[in-house]
UniProtKB/TrEMBL annotation:
CDD domains: 7tm_classA_rhodopsin-like (cd00637). It is found in: Cell membrane. The chain crosses the membrane at residues 67-92, 104-128, 134-163, 184-209, 229-254, 307-327, 333-354. One of its GO terms (cellular component) is plasma membrane. The keyword Nucleotide-binding does not apply. Residues 276-286 have a biased composition (Low complexity). Pfam families: 7tm_1. Residues 83-352 form the G-protein coupled receptors family 1 profile domain. Belongs to the G-protein coupled receptor 1 family. The gene is LOC110985882. The keyword Ubl conjugation does not apply. This is Alpha-1A adrenergic receptor-like. It is a multi-pass membrane protein. InterPro entries: GPCR_Rhodpsn, GPCR_Rhodpsn_7TM.
Length: 387
């Protein structure tokens, strides 16, 4: 009885232990399963955050959006390249357009041409879903040229504003003394040299040009620890001063013109200032026109107004991106607001063609292939005709 009793106790004990082990293993499996589920949920959250963006882990992975933006870049590149080339060609063919002011207009067109020439490479980076397909140096150069040409555009707009201010508010003698060929050349060189120096900061270890894994395009390499510092320095050194110059110059022009028009209306006469072609045979840049109705620099004021439209277009293209940068956790909209900037490369020729009195006429003859009707043909055009 004792033996059987002990055997029965041992059997019960083994059954209890077995049940305990099974229960423990089941609990362990449930914990493992729960851990895997938690891991899967964490991975899911990270993937969702990476796609949609929280300001820190954003990645521009959406293929549809990348294709749309890539197509926009391609379209703007074609239109912008054609339009800015027409601006340059118009000045080459018509002596009437070869003025001191238009030196800066042509320089602006060259900057926009370079700006548009980077678009195909940016399109390639957006459409390539497996990363940048070419040598990294190509992407770095593209990013540096994009920044330099954009900054050069701002510098040229400021130089044009100063030019219009001096032309309209100062005497013709002052205008000719400021805008000599040597000084104009120095201004043009500065408009390219200064942005180029700022764009070379990555060579000093501040920031780095390259392929951005974050935005999937050729811009700053966002993996660099000094990216934020370079963005801050680039923005502070390049944009505030030219924009202040633009606002001050055009405001002073407006006040000067409105005040002078009131005086001329009272006297019953007007003054016409001409920014004539830059030629040694030009006797003067000031002409008096006493025929009614009274006006003050009507043609030059109209040209200045159109150039002010160019400034407004630039600000309109740049403002959404600048505002976007000031909004926290808005990285997911930066690819779109930065795309708006490239439209600046096509608006200038459209404004010239639609509003500028001289460019409008020359463009019309160029588009209709009526080169023999271009007013005041340049020596280059006359040589082409004589062949």
């Amino acid at each position: 009885m004792s033996f059987h009793h002990n055997e029965k106790e041992m059997t019960v004990t083994m059954m209890v232990e077995t049940m305990t082990v099974v229960s423990t293993m089941r609990d362990h499996d449930q914990l493992s399963s729960g851990g895997n589920m938690a891991s899967d949920m964490t991975t899911s959250v990270v993937m969702e955050t990476t796609t949609q963006g929280d300001g820190q882990t954003f990645r521009f992975e959406n293929p549809v959006q990348r294709i749309i933006i890539g197509c926009i870049y391609s379209l703007v590149a074609v239109v912008g390249f054609s339009g800015n080339f027409m601006v340059i060609l118009a000045v080459i063919l018509s002596r009437k357009l070869q003025t001191r002011t238009n030196v800066f207009v042509v320089n602006l067109a060259v900057a926009d041409l370079l700006f548009c020439s980077t678009a195909p490479f940016i399109t390639l980076s957006l459409l390539s879903m497996n990363g940048w397909p070419l040598p990294l140096i190509v992407c770095s150069i593209t990013a540096a040229l994009f920044y330099t040409s954009l900054a050069c555009s701002v510098m040229n707009l400021a130089l044009i504003a100063i030019n219009r201010f001096i032309l309209i508010t100062k005497t013709s003698k002052t205008y000719r003394s400021v805008y000599t060929p040597k000084k104009i050349t120095a201004m043009v060189v500065f408009s390219w040299g200064y942005p180029a120096v700022v764009a070379c900061f990555p060579l000093l270890g501040i920031g780095r040009w390259g392929y951005s894994e974050k935005y999937k395009t050729c811009t700053q390499d966002t993996s660099s620890k000094t990216t934020g510092l370079f963005s801050l320095l680039g923005s502070v050194l390049m944009y505030p001063i030219p924009l202040i110059i633009l606002l001050v110059c055009y405001f002073k022009i407006y006040r000067h013109v409105t005040g002078h028009m009131k005086k001329m209306v009272g006297k019953g006469k007007g003054t016409e200032i001409e920014d004539t072609p830059n030629s040694p045979n030009t006797p003067s840049t000031t002409q008096l026109n006493r025929n009614p109705p009274p006006s003050f620099s009507k043609r030059q004021v109209e040209i200045t107004k159109n150039l002010f439209y160019v400034v407004c277009a630039f600000v309109a293209c740049l403002a959404p991106f600048a505002i976007n940068l000031m909004i926290p956790a808005s990285d997911h909209t930066i690819p779109w607001t930065s795309t708006i900037i490239i439209f600046n490369g096509i608006v200038n020729p459209i404004i010239y063609g639609a509003k500028h009195p001289h460019f409008k006429e020359v463009f019309r003859h160029m588009l209709r292939c009526r080169y023999h009707m271009i007013p005041e043909p340049s020596g280059c055009l006359r040589k082409i005709r004589s062949r």
